Model the fold of this input.
Amino acid sequence: MKILIVDDEKITREGIISSINWRSHGIENIYEADDGINGIKAARQYKPEIIISDIKMPRMNGVEMAKEIYNFLPDCSIIFLSGYTDKEYLKAAILLKVVNYVEKPINTKELEAAISKAVDIQLSLSKNRINIDINSKYTLSKLGLRLIHQNSKEELLLILNELNDIGLNIKPNNFFITILITLKTPISSLSESKNTEFLYILDEITSRNNIKYMVSIKNDEYFIIHFYSDSNISDRKVTSICNYLSSYLQKSYKYYIAAGDVICGIGNVYKSYNTAAILLQSSFFYEYNSIITSNKDCVASPDYTLIQTLLKRYRQCLNSLNRQDTTETIHTIYSSFLNNQQYLPKHVKDLYYKLFAELSQATVQLRLSTFYHSDTANILDYIVQDSNLVDLHRLLLDRINQFFSAIESRQTEEHPTIFAIKEYINKNYSNDNLSVKDISEYVNLSFSYICTLFKNETGKTINQYLTEVRIEKAKELLQTTMSNISEISTMVGYSDSNYFSKTFKKLVGKSPSEYKESSE
Done:
């Protein structure tokens, strides 16, 4: 909540500011003006909910200022400060229905009581406005969803009448464009403040571009925004709208934006929606936070022989155990499908599953199971459920690096007890109760012996190695899953997420959240 203090005496303004516990009243922003004319200017600029004003001031008194402010802020609450001789002014103030007046010299308790009363009035007004706004937005959302389907002339007339009833002056021949936004976060999980902030951004966009909008939500996954205007909506304007949305969303979300075609006539809105929905299906092939628009140069039919060619090349590189060629082939596969609107996601997902399967088969053939750990079943679930090309590329590249590192590790002979300890840790790191005592019992050797042996052979303690394994696993989960920090800390064996975050930052140089953001 905002408050404006208007008084020609600076010492009075400063005294009021310093004597009140503003936060306890929910007031976060305090503004000042030194007379009635400047008070009007400040009120126009900051739109305060509450105004505290002296009555007698040079150039324009408080009553005259209040009359002017009520013209553009009719619901604001005004508290007058008055001297004993200001009776005539007070009569005018009563006619203005001000909230209260406080006599000078100011009694802090009396002023605080007046402020508290004004805050209560503003909260009540705000609640009423929210209820009216919610009902209006709910009706508007339902109407927006009806427009994504082809409607008869009679149905369209009913929709137009309902839209006009809630204050939208939409004409049958307006120009429209539908823009879809999908977030990785369920829309229902967004806070009320975030939703309000998003609507404010839409208001900003429409104000900048001289257009209007209606917004709906579908399946808790998509924002459907119908922008409309009396005049044609240019490609340049569409780009401006999408870029403005993107600059706001990228601060907090992973998202995709898809823009449909500009059409004329409210009866054709479904066509723009369908174009955007088809484009959004191809979001699998785009990096997060992309704006997807129709690619007019896109080849009509995909070349499925390319998939077989790339798979064959990958298999050859893998079988020859050439790390560089295999990595380059993976990058070629990724770049071949990035940002394309030709292939269906299921075809490329199938290709990536085969790439992972080839890697798993090579692991078995080379007997690397003790060095390289990969859960093929989980990878299949990951591919099928909620992944995109970027995620699959990162995960496959990580698995390729693990595979070749395992080959290099096998080439270096390792003490069998050290190998057994590492194997046990790699299988049990998620157990938050895992201890060196457990490990000593597993290898059937004394506590002191394995601690000394491990330190001499590896240059680090068992606990240091365990911590490194857990942090490496955490890095992998931060890159490949949408799990939160607390969930990941539990998955890698930390019951205290704060301790996990401190340990992670100490080893990696970044907090888990910073590392996740830098990996995106």
